[in-house]
Amino acid sequence: MFNASCRVLATVGLLAAATVGLSACNTVSGMGQDASALGHDVSRGATATQSAVTSNTGLATH
Q1: What is the percentage of the chain residues whose pLDDT exceeds 70?
Q2: Is residue 27 part of a domain?
Q3: C-beta atoms surrounding 53 within 10 Å
């Protein structure tokens, strides 16, 4: 199904993804902190979008 070059490329890709993933979260605690930071970023983005909609249209968003 896959030729040798595709297998090598897929293996290198998986190893690179695993390396990045493991270096980003060394511990379960670190993973929790990363998830928390992502949640805060999403919340700040939603608040900024809501403020922009309200200030540019004058319409309430809820």
Answers
A1: 84
A2: yes
A3: 13
Residues 6+ apart with CB under 8 A from 59: 53
pTM: predicted TM-score of the whole model, two decimal places? 0.49
Question: What's the structural domain count of the chain?
Answer: 1
Q: Length of the chain in residues, anyone?
A: 62
- Whether residue 52 contacts residue 62, with contact meaning beta carbons closer than 8 Å, is answered with no
pLDDT tens digit string along 30-48?
A: 778 888 999 999 999 999 9
Domain assignment present for 28: yes
Residue 32, pLDDT score: 82
Domain range enclosing 31: 4-56
